[in-house]
Amino acid sequence: APKEIARCPLAELRSGEGVRVPSEAGPVAVFLVDGEVLAVQDTCTHEDASLADGFLEGHVIECPLHGGQFDLRSGAAVCLPAQHPLRRFGTRSDSEFVYVTA
Length: 102
Ligand code: FES
Description:
The chain is built from no helices and 10 strands. It has 102 residues and is mainly β. The chain has a single domain, classed as Rieske Iron-sulfur Protein (3-layer Sandwich). The protein has a 6-stranded antiparallel β-sheet with strand order 1-10-9-4-3-2, with no helix packed on it. The chain is globular. The relative contact order is 0.25. The structure holds FE2/S2 (inorganic) cluster (FES). FE2/S2 (inorganic) cluster (FES) binds next to loops. FE2/S2 (inorganic) cluster binds next to loops.
């Protein structure tokens, strides 16, 4: 079974904004997109920027530092200068928390 590596209170999740949560796999960015919770590594694969501080457009997150873009559903880099995919994480939720799993 997937292992729980982080949790985030459901109340902190708002549409259009990322939440950064620490985990044993490094910081994770959690997003609410169309009612679906998506989790990826928080640190951009280009340089050292936090994607939880980025700009969300649909299911694409734009890095706040140089504007690289990633598809949160696949982790794929979809706009330069981002070239390498993000690690994705699983999620599950109960009435209080979102759990990030790996
Ligand atoms: Fe994210 Fe450069 S650090 S695009």
